[in-house]
Write the structure tokens for this entry.
Amino acid sequence: MRNLTSSELRKLYLEFFRSKGHAIISSASLIPENDPTVLFTTAGMHPLVPYLMGQKHPEGRRLADVQKCVRTGDIDEVGDASHCTFFEMLGNWSLGDYFKKEAIAYAWEFLTSEQWLGIPKEKLSFTCFEGDKDAPRDTVAHDRWVEMGVDPSHIVYLPKKHNWWGPAGQTGPCGPDTEIFYDTGKAPCGPDCQAGCDCGKYLEIWNNVFMEYNKVADGVFLPLDQKNVDTGMGLDRTVATLQGVESIYDTDAFAGILSVITNLSGKHYKDSPETVRAFRIIADHIRCATFMLGDQRGVTPSNVDQGYILRRLIRRSIRFATQLGIPDGKLSDIAVAVIDQYGSVYPELEENRDKIVSELDKEQQRFTNALKKGTREFESLVSKMEGTQISGPDAFHLYDTFGFPVEFTVELAAEKGLTVDMDGFKAAFEAHQEKSHAGAEQRFKSGLQDNSETTVALHTATHLLQAGLRKVLNDDSVSQKGSNITPERLRFDFSFPRKVTPEELQKVEEFVNEAIAADIPVTCEEMTVSEAKAAGAIGLFESRYGAKVTVYTVPGYSKEICAGPHVTHTGELGRFKIKKEEASSAGVRRIKAVLIHE
């Protein structure tokens, strides 16, 4: 088995699939474009949904990439050997080209061939979909593994919970998968221990998804006209396997980052279970925060949506940095180590180096101020208390209103001979989470993946809105920083340093409605990035594409690189009306608008 660095595995994977006729495409932004179903890109499939649904990709039907991803559901679990928030997903894609037999053969060759990874065949086990009322048992995948030379005893059928990849939102492309596990050599947890068991003996390293169904609104699974392959291999996890280390934090990817934490704290990574956990949390959270801050779409700390997650990561890092004795204002030193590790692969990190450092420093100062306010509130609370226990709701108030970590409340309370009702705090916290999740689901409930006439029209309107802003504000640096579309309205975030005046907003409205009244055809062309730039197209998200891009044009008004879909004529949009303009985050404004059909 080859002992590869992160960089070597990344290059080798792309080299292998290039040799199999795949075009190599760049990673998309961490912030999904016009997809309100999720806050972040959580899998390689998100940027490719239009193509999985049948739209032609400029680079063809065979693709491979390394997609940067963020998953935040397990933030509180980060610190153990396996959880992290940011990760890179190696992926290869067939858009209606090859299917199960070829995908499985490619995976087997890359994993086991001495030319590639050289993993011993007997160390691998596999799971396949066992079938249910929605789809039959996947005997094709099972039998193909046997044809490759796998002992049938190493293949297990599991239900949808384990071996089915659902759509990115409530509806969309989905299908059964076959997962590949590496036997770590640990003792089995019992007689029923097998691939898919979460005891730690079997480590999942690759997932082959066969997208052959479309889940529609009523929960029915319909066969897709175009059958796709979507595979994913976690880079960190696979490198840890190849290097024979116990966690992703012991790989070369984290070596430089952990070294900086050691220098700043004067402590060593494995001094104690407490330092192990603190080092891992800081390393993971600052790596993730650095990628969010350095992203093409400009996420900054705030109290809502992506900015809220970013703020939470930074502030949790500060708390554990304080625990390690790292001086104030030094998290940006750790971010620089992240940039040095990844900047050659993701040039946006180098390009945004100054912004990353500046935003981290500013957020640290904000949190320091918040802690001062929280401490004053704590003292006021204690002075009015009766009894010796701080109630759960009061502890949560300090946390929610002042950003005061409950651990700080516990420590200060102990100094005064008091306790904290942690059960009550957890109950208040969980109630808040349920309320927040409900709100998030309301905000992020449907996107362009449904391809409805309304959302497609609103998506087209964002192009005209951006063009109108650039013209009226006389500022070509105005660029999209986020977009959220529901069937009721569009929300468009854009870079601009001040409030847009009512007079300017009216002129923007008039610009968009003029284009609508002209009923102009919306054209679509494929061209190279250089050709698109020469033609005057705005290339806001060009880094995600390969050599060719899709350019949508409203002649005389707008020309943008975009994946679509769009209306065929501007006259289909109705009347455009701006409902609100407000600040989104530092240097970013937000417009909410609707289309009215009279």
Notes: Residues 171 and 219 are 8 Å apart (CA to CA).
